[in-house]
Amino acid sequence: MIGRLNITLIGSKFMGRAHSNAWGQVSRFFDVDPKPALHTVVARNASELAEFAARWGWANHTTDWHTAVTAEDIDLVDIASPNNAHREAAIAALEAGKHVACEKPLAATLADAEAMAVAATAAPGKTFVWFNYRRVPAVALAHKIVAAGALGKIYHARASYLQSWGGPDTPLLWRFQGDIAGTGAHGDLNAHIIDAVRFITGEEIVSVDGAIEEKFVAERAPLEGGAGEEIAGAGADTSGMGRSTVDDAVLFLSRLSGGGVASFEATRLATGYYNTNRIEIHGESGALRFNFERMNELGYFRTDLADGERGWTTIDVTRGAEGHPYADAWWPGGHGLGYEHGFVNQARDMISVIGGGKPLVPLPDFEDALQTQRVLQAAIDAARQHRPVEVPPP
Ligand code: SOE
After folding, report:
1. Which domains can be identified in the chain, with CATH numbers?
2. What residues line ligand 1, using a CB cutoff of 6 Å?
3. Is 220 helix (H, G, I), strand (E, B) or coil?
C-alpha cells in the first residue's frame, strides 16, 4: 500500500532548494513507500516564500514554523535553517511525534547537539542528518570496499574541504556570526569530512592532538537591504561593518580508534578551489582516494596485484549493472551524476527507513551526528587551549 509522507521543510535558501529537489525527484527515480508530499515550506522572508513554494512544488507556505512543525497531518520535519535554529525546531518536532531530518552540522554548539540527541532517544520519530556526501556513489563504494576489509589496517586518513567564497568581499552572512553558526568553515566543512572519514573507515576519531583555528577576515561589510535579516539571522544587526566571530579555516591532526592517524583541513579561503572535498585512505592492503571535483570516480590502489602491475586505478562509479550504489536508479554506466543526486539518494534511504526498510549504506541519526559534533568541539578546544584533547566515545 503506497502511503504518503507529509513533509514540512524549514528553509528556502541553498539547502532548501537542494532538499526540495530531493523530495520532488526521489519517487521519480526510486520506488519509495511512503511517497513524499511537499506539504509546507517555512521561511522567515514572507516576500519570497510564495514564489519559492510555487517553483519547488510546496502546497503550503508560512512564516509560522511552530504550527507547521507540530501540525497533526505532518509526518516529517526537514530542517534547513541556520545552525542555531536546529535545536528548537528538532525538539518541537520530536515532541510532536514527527520524524526529523536535519542539515549538518547537527547544531551550532555541542550542548545543543546533546539536547537534540537526548530528545531523539525519548521520541518515537526517526532522526536523520543530511551528511549528503555519504551518498555520492563513489564515497558509498569506498565505504563498502573498506567494510569488506580490502584495505586491511588503516594507517592514514587525509581529508580536506576547500572553498574560496569567504574572501574580504563576502558580507557578514549568518555563517560568519558565531551566535548563529557556532563555528565557521569548521562546523560547515570539517563536519562533512569528519563524518566521511568515520563513515568510510568505520572507525572513531579518539583524540585531536594538534589544531589551528584562523580568521583571515575580521570585519565584513553589512548585508544589503532587507536580505540582511534573512541571511544574517533573526535579530542580527545588519547596519554597519560587522565583526566576524568565527573561523575562516581550521586544520587539525587526530588519532583513529584502529591505531591510525588522520588530518583534516577546512577553509573558505582556498583561492582557486570552489567546493573541493578530498579524502584519501591508506591501509596495509591498499588505498582509496576521492575528489568531489571528479565525483563519479574513485581512485583505488591494491597491493595484491603482481609485481610490476600495481598502480592507481580509476573506477567510474556509475555502473548500476555492476552493483555500484544508487547507480541503477539513474542513468546507464558512464553518464555521471551531480551534487544534487546525493541528496535524492539520501531521501530514498530516509524514506526506506521510515517505511521499515534499510538504507543502502548507513544513515547518520542524531546520535551518530553527535559524535561528529564532539570531534568538532575537541578540535576547537585543542586549537584554543594548545593541547591534545580526547574525544568522548559514542
Ligand atoms: C557551504 O557554503 C556549503 O553550502 C555547505 O554548507 C554545504 O554543506 C556544502 O555541501 C556546500 O557548501
Report:
1. 4-132 (3.40.50.720), 133-385 (3.30.360.10)
2. 14, 188, 275
3. strand
